[in-house]
Amino acid sequence: MKDNILLSICIPTYNRAHYLKQCLDNIVLQFDNETVKNSIEVVVSDNASPDNTTELVKTYQSRFNNIQYFRNHENLGMDENIINSVVKAKGKYCWNIGDDDIIQNGAIEVILAILAKEEIALLTVNIHSFIDIKQASEKKHFKEDDCVEYMKSAEELLLSKYDTGALGVHIFNRKLWLTVDKKQYEKAWACFEFIFKMIGRTSLPLLCLKPPVLFVGQDYRWNEGGTSLYLLTYGRRFMRKLKDYGYSKTFIDSRVDMFAKSLFRTTLSAKTYDFDCSVKNLWLLYKEFYRYPGQLFMTSLVFFIPNYFIKMAKKLKKSSI
């Protein structure tokens, strides 16, 4: 394994070998380009999967010497597994993607060209909602000069049209990432919290890749149990921390308000994924959103309606479209 790796594609995984295979297939498909093959490594961090993930990755390792595999002795949780994948990486830049994400064929080549041009803090890529594997496997040619947009600041990036809240959208400077304190972070927000902190005060360029290059969203397992509602709560807390990392009060207040204004909609979504609508969890929402009585009132009206009826209403709405 070479030491001059430009990009590490870091894939945290747990018990989804069937998705991981598709993900890896579309990466190694791009190894026919020698520059791509010699400039990247793939780091798979397995969170103690009970399925055949180990055997699957070994089949790729027998064919390619730039695929690294690390298996945790026990399930560390999503956040720690994501962190572990970056710590184990050797690349100058890291790209965390989900095991159910697919990189567009041809995209790695243009990304490497951008990263080789100058040292940057972050390259945020554009994404597709997942359509089908065939479309992702068809090789696309990207014009580097037309691809890149520079951002003046972290605030401009986070307020831009680009999706900055999905796992696979950020390619980041690993050395800069390692300087961020990782002892305390909000649950399920680690990958974003560290990146947003590191870009708040950096003088290195922040770039965005205009054409979509990543297919995401095959599996919404991250929302099992209505995790989106917890994410909303923890996300507000993490946003408030950014005041110590160069972000303005105006920006932070606007983002905190944005989280609060989506409380009712997020509650409905969480209930369709079997959120635990207990008094304890309602009290959690009241403590976090007490400054938003209108949102809390609307949320309270639907909170204890059985999840089954909310699911049925969602199905009926879909069938009528």
Automatic annotation (TrEMBL):
UniProt superkingdom: Bacteria
Lineage: Bacteria, Candidatus Staskawicziibacteriota
Annotated InterPro entries: Glyco_trans_2-like, Nucleotide-diphossugar_trans
MF terms (GO), sorted A to Z: hexosyltransferase activity
This protein's name: Glycosyltransferase 2-like domain-containing protein
Organism, as annotated: Candidatus Staskawiczbacteria bacterium RIFCSPHIGHO2_02_FULL_33_16
PANTHER family (alphabetical): GLYCOSYLTRANSFERASE, UDP-GLCNAC:BETAGAL BETA-1,3-N-ACETYLGLUCOSAMINYLTRANSFERASE-LIKE PROTEIN 1
Keyword annotations of the record: Membrane, Transmembrane, Transmembrane helix
Transmembrane segments: 292-310
Domain Glycosyltransferase 2-like, chain residue ranges per copy: 8-133
